[in-house]
Design brief:
Length: 439
């Protein structure tokens, strides 16, 4: 029986906070391997162990160690860190692990690539002759950069849900994998996780929208629902076996075709009476928020709503897939309030770094959101390879196509005309002031 070691790598960045983070792609990969008769072992380098304390709703900070800043970041006045378990702990887990036939390493943000490389280096020291296959978001969107950063690894481009053909090309060991009769189930990975303070929920895959800054349609081209009863069983397993009470939805389009997907699921969940708190950290599509949907959310146990607004200005409608103008947002926030959600439970994402956007534009949008009685959640653009907005900026910043570190939101916004590091401070201070009364 073949044996695989599956890892979620370290992250290197200026900031990282565990707001219900889970590597869902690796969860499905473990499910696929076990469906095919493999033995698996899972190491999550982003686990928050016993030394990290929970904050609100089981979120919290990671252990970290400061690193020397790479050249592009020299002028950023923040500490650059590696987040996750310590190097000593990772080495100890690798020493105790049964020798694998193959190592499968995930990847996420392209600008976290140094954390990926450092994880791969630790693996190579522990298992110098074992093949390493890297897959996931960064490997799919920027494979050449991953190959350059981890030259000894095999890089898998694409997902695992539709076909195993591309995985089979990576290594002969993977040639026998099949998805026939397979139903992706996260419980196998839950059972192999050392610490689980909260849980993920994924009711659907894909997104019908085509926002200029998002790669969801590239990573998962088709939209599909997962079986509601299976998702409910995943929640119940974590609630019963790990005593998890906080669960975050990972859907890119949670409310799309709500009558077929979300509404019947939410009603089933409410009847299960699991006593859980539900969170929607991904931006909910504003136009799909109806009184019926919001009542179902409240009854099911939602306590965190995040609305995907980004910008209501006409010049950005193409970039935001026309999610909502100001009047639409005001109407939907009023519905949210009527359904019983407090201002502190409701946040609205406002994006900075869109084409031709000025700092004053973003600040005005933030003021407007706060005036509606919702928390302001500012986000700065990270250009994602192969998206329309990435191509727009790459025309004047060609290094974006070859240097993944240049995609970091903290760094990228400082390169835009009229922004700079002072703008980052201004946005942060404004959000803190506007949100003070909602805590």
């Amino acid at each position: 029986m073949p044996r695989a070691l599956v890892l979620n790598p370290w992250v290197t960045d200026f900031k990282l906070y565990d707001e219900w983070m889970h590597p869902l792609g690796l969860c499905f990969l473990i499910s696929l391997l076990r469906h095919n008769g493999w033995e698996t072992e899972f190491i999550n380098c982003l686990e928050r162990g016993a030394r990290t304390k929970d904050k609100r709703f089981a979120t919290g900070g990671f252990e970290s160690v400061e690193l020397r800043k790479p050249a592009p970041y020299k002028r950023i006045p923040r500490k650059y860190k590696r987040y996750g378990i310590s190097e000593r702990e990772l080495e100890g887990r690798l020493d105790k692990a049964a020798r694998p036939d193959i190592v499968l390493l995930g990847s996420a943000m392209t600008y976290w690539i140094q954390g990926l490389a450092q994880t791969a280096a630790a693996l190579r020291r522990a298992f110098p002759a074992t093949p390493i296959v890297i897959g996931g978001i960064a490997a799919t969107l920027m494979p050449e950069a991953v190959e350059k950063c981890v030259p000894a690894a095999l890089v898998h481009r694409g997902g695992i849900l539709d076909s195993c053909e591309s995985l089979a090309q990576m290594h002969p060991l993977l040639g026998g994998l099949t998805t026939q009769g397979w139903q992706p189930d996260m419980r196998a990975s839950f059972a192999q996780s050392s610490y689980l303070r909260h849980g993920p929920v994924l009711l659907s895959l894909g997104c019908p929208l085509r926002c200029s800054y998002c790669a969801s349609s590239l990573l998962q081209p088709s939209f599909r629902f997962r079986p509601a009863d299976l998702v409910l069983d995943e929640i119940a397993w974590l609630a019963d076996n790990r005593h998890a009470r906080d669960f975050a939805f990972y859907d890119d389009a949670l409310l799309y075709r709500a009558g077929k997907g979300f509404l019947p699921f939410a009603r089933k969940l409410a009847k299960r009476d699991l006593h859980v708190r539900l969170h929607a950290p991904n931006g909910l599509h504003v136009r799909w928020l109806t009184a019926e949907v919001l009542d179902a959310m409240r009854e099911a146990g939602f306590v965190t709503l995040r609305l995907g607004y980004e910008s209501g200005l006409e010049k950005h409608r193409c970039d935001t897939a026309s999610k909502a103008g100001r009047k639409e947002l005001a109407h939907r926030v009023a519905l949210v309030r009527k359904a019983g959600f407090a201002p502190g439970e409701t946040g609205v994402y406002v994006m900075g770094g869109l084409p031709q956007q000025k700092l004053a534009d973003m600040l005005a949008e933030m003021d407007f959101v706060a005036s509606l009685g919702a928390m302001v959640k500012p986000v700065l653009l990270s250009p994602v390879p192969r998206t329309r907005l990435f191509e727009y900026y790459a025309a004047s910043m060609p290094d974006l196509t070859v240097e993944p570190l240049s995609h970091n939101d903290t760094y990228f916004v400082t390169r835009l005309e009229g922004w700079g590091w002072e703008a980052v401070d201004t946005i942060r201070d404004s959000a803190r002031t506007l949100n003070a009364s909602f805590k």
